[in-house]
Write a structure and sequence with these properties.
By secondary structure, the chain is α+β, with helices and mostly antiparallel strands. It is 44% helix and 16% strand. The mean pLDDT is 93. The structure holds iron/sulfur cluster (2 copies).
Length: 172
């Protein structure tokens, strides 16, 4: 169901908090010179990321029952996301979004969509081996893609070996 005025206001505040947290997190990453993949490609507007949105929560949310209940309550009541699955080892929660219409593949509250919807798939780029949804138009690119690719090309490798390395090392 489309967000009303109150929900839009609550979500605007939550989005601001999300952006501040994310900004601090990414600034820390830059200062620590952490290896994070760069986002290549474009959004194809396929809406695959709306079919089963997923969130990785902090370990304390997964382990502390009151924090977990509050987290899931917020997702359900504010974001319209109901829990459908969970990877307990990775602290990943998978949801069904009530704003997504599978027939039209549109979001009924796109202007007030939560931060993770706007940021996808950038957080995935922090994984050691990022895997985006099948068909997603984005791709992870190594921050050293250009020099590494030049180095590989200069070695005169067979084309199939070069193609495999380019793919496996995220140099496309
Ligand atoms: S899955 Fe990727 S390409 Fe498709 S809508 Fe989401 S971000 Fe865009
Ligand atoms: S809120 Fe909108 S953009 Fe986010 S998952 Fe649901 S349908 Fe997709």
């Amino acid at each position: 169901m489309r967000d009303g005025v109150l929900l839009r206001a609550v979500k605007a505040v939550a989005l601001l908090t999300f952006r501040v947290d994310l900004g601090v997190h990414r600034l820390r990453q830059r200062l620590r010179r952490e290896h994070v993949y760069v986002l290549g490609g474009d959004c194809r507007r396929c809406a695959r990321c709306c079919e089963a949105p997923a969130l990785r929560a902090g370990p304390w949310i997964a382990r502390l029952p009151p924090a977990r209940r509050l987290f899931l309550w917020w997702q359900e009541r504010v974001n319209g996301w109901s829990l459908t699955g969970e990877d307990k080892a990775q602290h990943v929660f998978v949801f069904r979004c009530s704003h997504f219409d599978p027939a039209t593949r549109l979001c009924d509250s796109y202007e007030s969509r939560p931060g993770p919807c706007r940021d996808y798939p950038r957080l995935v780029l922090e994984q050691a081996r990022p895997e985006l949804l099948p068909g997603c138009g984005y791709r992870p690119v190594s921050p050293r893609a250009i020099p590494l690719r030049r180095e590989l090309e200069a070695r005169g490798l067979p084309p199939e070996v070069l193609a495999r390395l380019v793919k496996e090392l995220y140099l496309e």
